[in-house]
Specification:
The chain is of the alpha/beta class. The chain has a single domain (2-276), classed as Metallo-beta-lactamase, Chain A (4-Layer Sandwich). It is 21% helix and 23% strand. The protein is built from seven helices and 14 strands. A hairpin with a 2-residue loop joins strand 9 and strand 10 (177-182). The chain is globular. The N and C termini lie close together (6 Å). 46% of the residues are buried. Bound molecules: zinc ion (3 copies).
Length: 283
């Protein structure tokens, strides 16, 4: 399985759009891996997690080919994870031509909770786009109910995040590999822990929300490095991870008070890799 981090920032990006704080200035000065766009991750070349406004930038900068995507999982309806307006450009031949013999004849399978889906309505309505039934198929998901999409078994679990959106974190399994993608979330709710324990899944790859990075008190809504360490320890203790599990921290904000270059050596001490835009991992 291949995982490519396309965007690794929280909502405001790093540097944040209008910000002059010490962290944003440092990120501007250092450049490279310290620059982060909004949250998006590619699995192999056909499953995409989240669809922020920076998707087009990921197409241009990282060769993301949206025509190959068969499954689009949305974690929740915050705009750094879901910007539905750009999906409109798949829904009419005015914007997207599908070749007769091409790979885009089948609809893009979009998965999200009903609450997160509510934010799509005005976008589609406003543009008065006549939706092509081959363009997008909307699937409303339920927490703790697995589904299969294009050979991936996907299970949404409850996230500790903006409740009104009914946000989820995802277990994604294919070819005997299992990924836990936990964005955005604070320390996991107990029913999600129960599911993980009872499923007996041992994850090969775990990506944890580290928005609040160096803020020790961050356990709710988002996590900091300390909470990520607690999740990692509990996963190992309860059998959901072992010494072969690859752990990443991801989804960073200037409010976390650090940049990639400074965080990397610190996170490594706790057994975490640090994500950056464009990073690809195969396992
Ligand atoms: Zn976010
Ligand atoms: Zn800032
Ligand atoms: Zn969020």
């Amino acid at each position: 399985m291949k995982i490519k981090y396309l965007g690794t920032a929280a909502a405001e990006g790093t540097p944040a759009l209008f910000c002059s704080c010490e962290i944003c200035e440092k990120a501007r000065r250092l450049g490279g891996k310290n620059i982060r766009t909004r949250s998006q991750t590619l699995i192999n070349d056909d499953l995409l997690i989240d669809f922020p406004a920076d998707t087009y930038m990921h197409v241009l900068d990282y060769g993301l080919d949206l025509r190959k995507i068969k499954t689009l999982l949305i974690t929740h309806g915050h705009d750094d994870h879901f910007y539905p307006f750009d999906l409109v450009y798949r829904c009419s031949p005015v914007y997207a031509v599908f070749p007769d013999n091409g790979f885009s004849k089948k609809p893009l399978e979009l998965y999200l909770t009903r609450n997160s889906g509510k934010i799509m309505r005005p976008y589609f309505k406003k543009e008065k786009v006549k939706r092509d039934k081959n363009a997008i198929n909307i699937n409303y998901i339920k927490k703790f109910k697995s589904f299969v999409s294009n050979g991936y078994t996907v299970t949404p679990l409850r996230a500790s995040h903006a409740k009104f959106l009914d946000p989820v974190i995802y277990i994604i399994q294919k070819d005997n590999k299992a990924v836990l993608y936990a964005h955005d979330s604070g320390y996991f709710p107990e029913d999600s822990w129960n599911y993980i324990r009872q499923s007996k899944i041992v994850f090969d790859f775990v990506s944890l929300d580290c928005t609040s990075t160096l803020k020790d008190e961050a356990y709710e809504y988002h996590m900091g490095l300390k909470a990520c360490c607690d999740v990692k320890s509990r996963l190992i203790k309860e059998g959901g991870a072992n010494k072969n599990t690859i752990f990443f921290v991801n989804h960073f904000s200037h409010n976390g008070k650090t940049v990639y270059d400074d965080l990397k050596p610190l996170a490594e001490q706790y057994g975490f890799n640090v994500s950056y835009d464009g990073l690809e991992i195969e396992f």
